[in-house]
Structure formats: C-alpha cells, structure tokens
Amino acid sequence: MKPIRSLACVLALVVLSLTLAAVPAQAAAANISLSPVQGPAGTTVTVTGTGFPKKSSGTLSAGTSSAAFKVSASGYFTAAVVIPQTTQPILDVQATAGTVSASAAFTVVAAPAPPPPPAISSSPLRFGIGTPGGPLAAAELDQAASLAGEVPSVILSYKDFNQAPPVPELDAARSRGATTLLTWEPWAWGGGTEQPAYALDRITAGDFDPYLRQWGAALASWGHPVMLRFGHEMNGNWYPWAEGINGNGPGDYAAAWRHVHDVVAGTGATNITWVWNPNVPYWGSTPLDGLYPGTGYVDAVALDGYNWGTSAAWSSWIAPAELFGPGLAELRRLAPGKQVLIAETSSAEQGGSKADWNTALISYLAAQADVTAVVWFHFNKETDWRINSSTSSATALAAALAARPQ
After folding, report:
1. Residue 230: phi, psi to the nearest 5?
2. Looking at residue 116, what is its pLDDT?
3. Residue 320: which H helix or E strand, with range?
4. CA dist., res. 311 & res. 384, Å (int)
5. Residue of 297, 289, 306, 190 whose CA lies nearest to 239
6. Is 300 left (phi over 0), alpha (psi -120 to 50) or beta?
7. Quick one: what percent of the chain has pLDDT higher than 90?
8. pLDDT confidence of 295, banded at 50, 70, 90?
9. N vs C: which end of the chain shows fewer Cβ within 10 Å?
10. How far apart, in whole angstroms, are the C-alpha atoms of residue 49 and residue 53?
C-alpha cells in the first residue's frame, strides 16, 4: 500500500506544478516620469516610461499635443512632448502603447513676464553708439541696445566731402529717438593723408562753398537738431586736415573751421550744434590753443580717446581718468562752460581687464558734470573695440550704465 500512496502524491505534485505553470506571471505595471514636472505653456517635457510592451510603438499626448515613441526590448522609452496652451492648471501627460497606458500630471504655471525692452535712459550722461553701418543699420543698433541694456540716444555717423547730406540717415536716427553726431570729413575716403585738393587753405579760399551751401540748405530744410563735428582729431597727424600734413600750416585749421561755419550758417541752418573734437592730447600732438576757432564758432567740445592696452607695439594699458583727465582740463580752459562729449571711445582686451575698464569709465564720466555723452566705438577694427568683444565686457558696460545717476 505504501508505494500506491507515494505514487498518488507524486501525481498530485505534478498536477499542481502544471496548474501553476499555466498561470501567467504578473506583468510589471507601466509607469512614466516627467522632466520638468511644471512650467509654462510651450515647455518641452521629457517623458521616460518603463513597463511597456517590448518593441512596440506608442503615442504621448498632452492636451492637444502629441508625439510618437518606440519601446525598447526592455520595455523602456524616452520621448518629448510640448505642453500646449491651456486654461487648465494641471495637464495629464499620457503614454499609450497597445493596451498599456500610464499618465503623470504636469503643473502649468504662468510664463514669466518678458523683460521690458531697452529704452533711452534719462541719465544726464547720454549713451551713444557708432557701428559700421551707421544710422541705417537697424540690426546693428538693435544689438547694441540689447548689449548695453538701453537704446542709444546718440548715433555716430561719418561722411566725407564727396557725399550728399545724409537726410535719410538723420531720419532713421530720429525715428529711434536719437540725435545724430554727424562727422564731416574734408577729404576723399581712401585717398591718404596727402590730398592737395582738400588742403585747408583751399577750403578757406571758397573752393567748396557750393558744396557747403548744399549741406547747409539740406540741414536747414530738415530742421531737427543735429550735432556736426567737422574735421575731428585735428591735433593728430593721420588726417589730411591736420596742420603739418597735406601742406597745411599753423592757423589753417581754425581758419577753415570758421569759413565752413559761416557758409553753412549763412543758409539758415540754426539747428546745428557745432562740435569741436580733438583727440586726447598725447606727446607730440598739435597744441590745442592754435586749433580752437573761438567761442562764437563752437557750441560743444568733444574728445576721442581709446585704451589700446597692449594691442599695439607702442601702446600700454591706461585708466579712464588718465586717458581723459588732461584733455578735459584743456577743453575746460579753452571753452569754459561748453558741454563736453566723449565722441569716440573703447578699450582693447589685451593688457588688462576690459570689464573693469568699462566700469571705471562710466563711473568716471558720470562724475563729470559737464560731460553730457559717451559714444562707444562698436567696431572690430584695429582691435576688437566692440562692447561684446567678451561676455565680461558687455556685462560690465550694461551694469555700469544701469548704475549711473538717472
């Protein structure tokens, strides 16, 4: 009898094993996770799923948005879906593959308010810009405003003695709320420093009077304020209107300035601010006394000055106060009570911290009560003078401008 009972037990165990084998194993529950789990409409959400049918195709949905996904051989997938515009504070993100689905909640938050667009500052120290394209280069000017954190209220422009009055450029600057600082150069661009046709005594003798009257009449007819700097940086030796260059002698520059002023003023162009603009004095530069045409011929004075750092073989790093201090003292002696502009400036990156220089420049100029504008030379020329020659330079200038007294 014992063997019979043992056989029955074995048979019972076999039946039980077969029965258990017929019951399917419990499948792992499908699950998804979101990254991020909250944000505004338009957020791209990465969805990670596990426990889905292997090697199947599926669809993600979030409100009106959807995206396809593929499941791996291990039941895993990752895909992205964009959160659509919705009035619901909570939006279900659902993943479905075959008959398997899973969902997770995404919290929809209000989008942060965009930063206010740059505007013209009310600071007594106006910010200006010169770019390669001038007043008509809207993209350049927009970029400069974005970098500086404010819209320039002065736009630098250049014309030689072969160009017509730039009325469209004046209109473009005015449409942006800016005043044009119009540089009028008595030469032909590209002709070098020896151009006898443009010698200063030829200007004084009246050779260009019809051209001068054309400009005066056009500016008078236009009628809005314009700053005109004729023959800038005349105390250097790199332009044909400098004394000692191109046959020019002592006193010729002041005489030519007075003649140009009188001819243009004779057309009724009372909307012009005449800006007398030497370079910052340096060892060997022409003394300013003999170049100044007189109080009645000048409305504002200006300086151009750059920190070349070690970008040139002859240059070294110079702080803003050292760069501009002596020249400002000279202008105040020659033209007491006149407003002062820094008509061109920037720093090289080589030789020091341009970011620190930018900060020191604005702080120094803002403390000078008679300095009414600083115009940045936003060019990549002899070196990279641009505001954004480095991220630190751009960040520092924007912060310094924002910190100056309003």
Report:
1. -90, 130
2. 83
3. helix 320-334
4. 9
5. 190
6. beta
7. 91
8. very high
9. N
10. 11
Q: Does 138 score more than 70 pLDDT?
A: yes
Rg (CA), the chain: 36
Domains and CATH numbers, the chain: 31-108 (2.60.40.230), 126-403 (3.20.20.80)
The β-bridge partners of 384 are: 380
The pLDDT of residue 113: 84
Amino acid at 165: P
- Tens digits of residue pLDDT in 19-52: 444 444 445 699 999 999 999 999 999 999 999 9
- What residue type is assigned to position 373 of the chain? A
| C-alpha–C-alpha distance, residues 51 and 133, integer Å | 60
Instruction: Give all strands of the β-sheet with 65-70 in edge-to-edge order.
Output: 38-39, 100-108, 90-97, 57-62, 65-70
145, 151, 153, 154: CA torsion to nearest 10: 10
Per-residue pLDDT averaged across 276-283, rounded?
Answer: 98
CA-to-CA distance for 72 and 79, rounded, in angstroms? 12
pLDDT digits (tens, 9 = 90+) for 203-219: 999 999 999 999 999 99
pLDDT of residue 117: 84
pLDDT single digits (tens) 320-368: 999 999 999 999 999 999 999 999 999 999 999 999 999 999 999 999 9
CA dihedral 87, 88, 89, 90 (to 10 degrees): -150
Q: Please tell me the distance from the alpha carbon of residue 41 to that of residue 139, in angstroms, as a whole number.
A: 29
Give CA–CA dist 321/366, Å, rounded.
12
| Distance from C-alpha of 26 to C-alpha of 49, rounded to nearest angstrom | 18
User: How far apart (Å, rounded) are the C-alpha atoms in residues 387 and 371?
Assistant: 21
As beta bridge partners, residue 157 has 182
Nearest Cα residue to 344 out of 314, 311, 382: 382
Q: Are 32 and 48 in contact (CB under 8 A)?
A: yes
How much is the pLDDT for 282? Answer: 97
Name the residue among 255, 265, 329 with its Cα closest to residue 294: 255
253 bridge partner residues: none
Amino acid (one-letter) located at 242: A
For residue 405, what pLDDT is reported? 95
Q: What's the chain's length in residues?
A: 406
Rounded CA gap, 371 and 339, in Å? 6
Q: Could you give the 3-state DSSP secondary structure of residue 210?
A: helix
